[in-house]
Amino acid sequence: GAGVSQSPSNKVTEKGKDVELRCDPISGHTALYWYRQRLGQGLEFLIYFQGNSAPDKSGLPSDRFSAERTGESVSTLTIQRTQQEDSAVYLCASSRTDRIQYFGPGTRLTVL
Amino acid sequence: EDQVTQSPEALRLQEGESSSLNCSYTVSGLRGLFWYRQDPGKGPEFLFTLYSAGEEKEKERLKATLTKKESFLHITAPKPEDSATYLCAVQGNGGSNYKLTFGKGTLLTVNP
After folding, report:
1. Residue A4 and residue B43: Cβ atoms within 8 Å?
2. B27-79 pLDDT tens trace
3. Phi, psi for B19 (deg, rounded to 5)
4. Could you tell me which residues of chain B have a Cβ less than 8 Å from any Cβ in chain A?
5. What is the dihedral of CA A24, B96, B6, B104, to 10 degrees?
6. What single DSSP character describes residue B80?
7. CA distance A83 to A38
């Protein structure tokens, strides 16, 4: 079946602009996760959704980051007033239970 | 706080030369240990999950093992197509029992 999809695959933006990243999870997966992968670093947890509720936003690095999810479907991660340190690959994953997380291809964000 | 350390950071093998990758972890009660493979420009691809010490799982040339402090990913007679970054992650039984804590990965290169 179809895996997790993310769009855009690449995004180049100017410092100070807002960006929206989109994630389509595997159909039927109730849990959805966002991670960030900076060069030379391990994946860093950002936020977790169970259905459309986000019980854990503790990984969001600042109040410029927000995320929402529509039902048990699409999620968007929004970064306002982007900074150069936001440059990274943003990965989305989904799971049927809180166990095996299946990842999408990621969005590579470059802030100039 | 859960922690994962992977070694070595990079490993070069000749085709057919078997070796092992190490993942050392500290976690407040292990819920699961996960191995992923990541190719350049792609998202992590799930390989194995291990839940208790002594457990082993195999897939083609790969075999994952688990103790109370570490996991090994054994690669037998590797081929060039096994070249990738291998990521280890843990999921603990604490309050945030859904998120994965990742190591920085081992970059494996298999030369023909």
Report:
1. yes
2. 989 999 999 999 999 999 999 999 999 999 999 999 999 999 999 999 999 99
3. -160, 180
4. 4, 32, 34, 36, 41-46, 49, 87, 89, 91, 96-105
5. 40
6. G
7. 14
